[in-house]
Structure formats: structure tokens, C-alpha cells
Write a structure and sequence with these properties.
By secondary structure, the protein is mostly helical. The protein contains six helices and no strands. Helix 3 runs antiparallel to helix 4.
Length: 117
């Protein structure tokens, strides 16, 4: 599956500077970072709503579909900054084996214990 993410990174980088009339990704980039962030926020909300629906007897596959949309738009955002999925995987790899509390405490400006993770 990493090949899929690599291929998507390549497409997103290519379309970043393409004509806005040529693709959805090009149009998002032409509208700027705020539009990209708006889409990431919308998709995050849709993930939450789908998960709540699934918890109440709805279709869990809808959660997967919404997460796919969120990941896609997050990757568009990464590409905006000339980053890729490998940058995210590198950070996740660095965090592997660490307690969540210890990892959070190691980040600047964070307390070891909080309500959010």
C-alpha cells in the first residue's frame, strides 16, 4: 500500500501547479492554503459524524470512506508544504515504542498528562 501513497504523493505534487481547470487538486491549490485547510476540517467533521453514526448502528464502512477523504485532503495539505506521507511515517516511526504520555511530554510546550490523548 505504500506504493499507492507514493503514487498519490507524486500526483499531488504534479497537480499542485497545474491549471485549476485541469483537476480538483489543482483548483484547491489555486484557491490557497485556507481552502485546503477548510476541506481538511470538513472531512475531519465528517469522520466524526460517520463514527458516531456507526456507533449507533450505522455502517462502519462509511467511517472508512470518510477517513479516506480526510487522508486525501491531509495529503493535499502536506503537498502544499512540499511534504509527503513519508514525512508523517518518519515521525510515527520515531514515536513507536514510546508511551503516549512519555512521547507527549517530550514535545516542547506539552504536559505529560492531559485530557486529550
Amino acid at each position: 500500500m505504500d506504493d499507492l501513497l507514493t503514487a498519490l504523493d507524486k500526483v499531488l505534487a504534479e497537480r499542485k501547479t497545474a491549471s485549476p481547470d485541469s483537476s480538483y487538486v489543482a483548483a484547491l491549490n489555486a484557491e490557497g492554503l485556507n481552502k485546503i485547510l477548510e476541506k481538511v476540517g470538513e472531512e475531519a467533521t465528517e469522520v466524526i459524524l460517520a463514527a458516531k453514526d456507526a456507533a449507533e448502528g450505522g455502517d462502519p464502512e462509511e467511517v472508512v470512506k470518510e477517513v479516506a477523504d480526510l487522508w486525501f485532503h491531509a495529503m493535499v495539505m502536506l503537498a502544499h508544504f512540499d511534504l509527503s506521507h513519508t514525512d508523517v511515517l518518519r515521525v510515527l516511526d520515531e514515536r513507536m515504542g514510546l508511551s503516549g504520555l512519555a512521547e507527549k511530554a517530550a514535545r516542547k510546550g506539552h504536559n505529560a498528562v492531559s485530557d486529550d490523548a
